[in-house]
User: What shape does this take?
Amino acid sequence: MSRFRIYPTPMQQAALLEQCGHARYVWNLALEQWSMWTRDRGPTPGYVEQARQLTRARAAFEWLRTGSLTVQQQALRDFDEAVKNFYAGTHRRPTWRKAGRHEGFRIVGGQASRIVELNRKWAAVLVPKVGWVRLRLSRSTPDAKSYRITRDRVGRWHLAFAKIPEPIPGPGTGDVVGVDRGVRVSAALSTGDLLSCPGLSETEQIRLKHLHRRLARCRRGSNRRLRVKAAIATLHARAGDRRKDWVEKTSTDLARRFDVIRVEDLCIARMTHRPRPKPDPSRPGRYLPNRRRAKAGLNRGILASGWGALVRRLGDKAPGRVEKINPAYTSQTCSVCGHCAPENRESQAVFRCVACGHQANADVNAATNIAAGRAVSARREMPVPVSPKREPQLTTSA
Assistant: This one.
């Protein structure tokens, strides 16, 4: 999906926010109708019936009639497609859209192709009920039949074309690489490369800490609180942009250099769950320490490293060339002799095999095991190749 930055005027921003509100209202109303279904009632209204209801609603309410019919009908089509994808098992259940968080709408059809290039750096796109909005040409615009306009929490507007890019072809050399994902080192390759996802600098982290302290002292509903929240959102958006940029560049580089990319099969959603409370048996109603603060810091480190985004983009750019390997004991197994023991991992960064004496970076050693496709059993034993069975031989006594 090709995304571009748009720069609407203040009047256009107000019109775009109004369109986003109409699309969000129609979506939530359709979701409410779908959520009220019970077995004793008939089927919920589909897109055709909801379109008729939208026509009657536009005739009854002036504020809804001032919006674009194309935007509101497309919101109903998107919801109908989301319900079909949910029943097909390919997507999650449709959820409510909230103001300030889910700001956007989609344009499909002939109106989506109304783009005029002004010069080498700027273009203009015609948005219904808004007018011509300036578009920054960071690359050539694709030939797409639909686009989506969104607004993030910082207030930036973007336009994304629904055009799936072509996959990146492999080099054809048969090279295989293993990728070990971690917190201190975001991605360690079996080739010895250590890649780290950039985040906020030390100065920005100090500023973020001061802003959180100021936010705690602000009065709820005040203008100062809104300004502090906007400053915090700006820092988080800056970190998110750097993470996305690193994921895109790293995934493109791996897809171009290697034919087969092997990664750990991790369930990040379960890994980042908060720890369960531990009831104190000696004191009813009290709980034992469960190290939730340390777990919260680990969860932030995992999510800030972009583990899931990296594998997802690798699957998009190199389809069929990404393999997921069982991660069991890959960090405790020697990549040279195959000896598996907890004593091999001396520290977070040092690996020294107690059997053969092989020493290497712990993350690179794990990536080498992943590249080899090694998986050990629960007893920490390397799988032994099965030898062909021998036919029993008849012996005769002299």
